[in-house]
Task: structure prediction
Amino acid sequence: MLDAAPKSTDHLRTPDWYRTATRWTQLTLAEDDPIRFDPAFWVDVFKRTQSNATCISAGGYVAYYPSKVPLHYVSKFLGDTDPFGALVEGARQLDMHVMARVDPHAIHQDAADAHPEWVMVDRAGNRMRHWAFPDVWVTCAYSDYNFKFMPEVLREITANYDIDAIFANRWQGHGVCYCDACRTDFRAASGHELPLTNSLDDPAWLAWGAWRRSKLSRLVVEWDEAMKAIKPHTSFIPNMGSVSLMEFDLPIIEKYCPFLCVDDQGRQGTEPVWMSGRNGKRMRATFRDRPAILITSIGPEEAHRWKDAVTLGPEIQAWIDSGTTQGLLSWFTKFNGVVPDERWIAPVADSFALHARLEPALAETVPTAEIAILDPTTTLRHYDHASRREAEAHDLGFYQALVEARLPFEMLSDAAMTPERMDQYKVLILANSTCLSQEQAEAIKAYVSRGGSLVVAHETGTRTPGNEARQNPLLADLLGYTVTRPVRGPVKNTYVALNGEHPITRGFDGAARIMGGTQLIGVDAAPDTVHPFLYVPDFPDLPMEEVYPRQAPQGAAVIAREHEGGGRTVYIPWNIGAIFWEVLAGDHARLIANSVHWALGKRPDVELEGRGVVDLSVREGEGTLLVLINNLTNPMMMKGPIREVYPIGPLTVSVRVPEGRSLRRARRAASGDELEFTLAEGRVRVSIAQLSSLDAIQFDWS
Result:
C-alpha cells in the first residue's frame, strides 16, 4: 500500500517544480527489464531513500513504453506492458517529481538503413558502428536525427505521461563527425575543412568548437520549445556537467537549464574524494544561485566499465557526502532494474537521510568564503575532454593545497567576473589562467585597486582568448615583473632558495632551498616588490658527482607586492600548481598556503584545529553561520574505493564573531543538539569529540 499523499501538492507541476527536487533516484533500464524487474521494489526504494524526485528511462535508443513514432525502437520484451508508465504512476502517487530519460547516441539497423545520414562518420569516411555493441550504429549529434526525429519522441513522451522534464544523456555527440552534412555545414559556417587534430594551434579545431556550441545550443532551444508547446511547465534538461559550462554559451544555459546536473558519477583512477564537491563549487563559479545536482553511481566508475556492479558502501557515501558538503543536491543512479546485489541501498539511504536532516539549514544559507580560485573557462574551452584534465592540473594542485591548509574557499568563473562577484572575496587565485581578454585583465586590476588581493602563477595572461600568444602578459605590470626568458621545460633538478625572512618563507626551518618547478619563466621584478624566493641556476642531475650548484641564487622565483588600495599580490613564475598536483610535495603545499595567507593579510574568519584531512564549507544566512566539516582522512583518500571510515577528533572550530553580533547558540545542524562554546578575543570556539564522515555546526547570532 502506498503512503497517503501529503496535504499540499502546490510544489508539483509548476515551472518552479525543480526547487523542491532535492534527492533523486535514477533508474536506467536494461532492454529485458520489462519481463524481469519489479516496479514495486523501486517504489519502495523511493521511500527508503527519502527521494522526492526520479529520473526514469523512457526512450531514444530503446523505448520502454509503447511508442508510435516511426523508427523509434521499442524494447522487444515490452509485450503489452508499460514499465515507464508504471514507474511514473508509482512516483506520482508519492508526490514525487518525475523526469524522463532519453539517450539519442545510437540507433538500430532499421533506422540506419532508412536514414544513413543519421549515422556518424569517422575521419576515414566509414560509418561508425557502436564501439561497445557493433550491432548498432552511433548517431551524428548534429544531424536530422537529433533535429527532426528526437523532437517527435520528446513530444510523444510529454503528451502521454505525467512528467516535469526530459533529461538527455549522451546527447552532445562523440567528437568530430565527418559526414557530408557536417562537412558542408562546417565549411559554410567557418570557411575551414573539418579538423583532423585537436591541436590548439589548428584554427579549424578552434572553429569547430565554436560551430559545435552553436549547433548544440540550437538543439537545446528546439527540444525545450517542443516540450513547452505541449506542457508549459516542462523543460528539456540536457546533461550539463561541469565541463559543459565551458563548452556552451552561458546565455543558453541560463535560459534553458533551470538546474544543472554534474555527471561525474564517481572516482576513476587516482582521484581525490573531494572531486565531487569541487564540481559544486565549479557550478556556483558561474551560476551562483542555480540548483546543482551530483549524479552518483552505485557502481565503480573505472574505464573497464563494470556498469552493473556495486562499489563499497563507504565509497558511495564519501562521494555523496562530499557533494553535500559543497552544496550539491543528491542523485544516485542504478543501471538495470534487476538488483542481484542490494549492498548499495543502505549507504545511499543513510547519506540521503543525512542530506534530508541538513536540508533546512542548507536552504536558509548560501556559500561564502574569503578566498576563491578563478575557474579559467576561457582557457579550458580550447581543450577536448581527453586533454582538459592535464590543463586543469594547475587548478587541482592549488585546490589540494587549500584543502590541506583548511582554508575555506569557493571558485569564480572568469566568465562571471563582475565587481559584485569579485568583491565577495578578499583573495583571488589564478593558478594558470593562460587565456585572458583585455576586459578580464582590467576587471582584475580594478579589483586590486579596490583592495582585493591576488595569488597568480605560471603563464597567466600570456595568451589571448583565441589562444594566440601575447608579447607581454596582461597582468605583468600589476604583479610587478617583466619577462626576460619565456617558459622553458620540462627541466629537472630545479630549486628555489629562501631569500630572507618573510611570511611566505615561514615553516621551512632548516632549509636553505626547496624543490622548484619543471616549467620556468625568467623574470625581472619591479623595484617596489620583494622576493621571498630566488631561482637556483640550473645544474646537472647526472653524473651524481656533478649534482651541485655553480652559481648563487638569482632572479625572483616568487614576487610579492603591496598596493596602495590595500591589496596584495603574489606571482610565482613557474608551474607550482601542476607540479604539486603531480608530486604532492609538502614544501609546495606550504608555499601555496603561505602565499594565500599573506595575500589574505589577516587571520581567516573560520579555522579548524585538530588532526586529519578535512574539507570545509562555510555558509551564511540571516543571523546564522553554518560550517560543514567533511572528514577525508583515509588511506584511500586519493584512490578509491574507500573500505571503511576512519573517525578523527577532537576538533575545534574557531569562528570570528561578526561585528555588532553576539552568539545566541551553537548546535549540530543535523540533530539540533546544542554545543558548549567559549568566547575570547572576538572569536567563538566549539569542540566536537569525534567526526566520522560529515558534520555541520550552526552558529546563531543575536
In short: The longest strand covers residues 53-60. The chain has 20 helices and 31 strands. The mean pLDDT is 95.
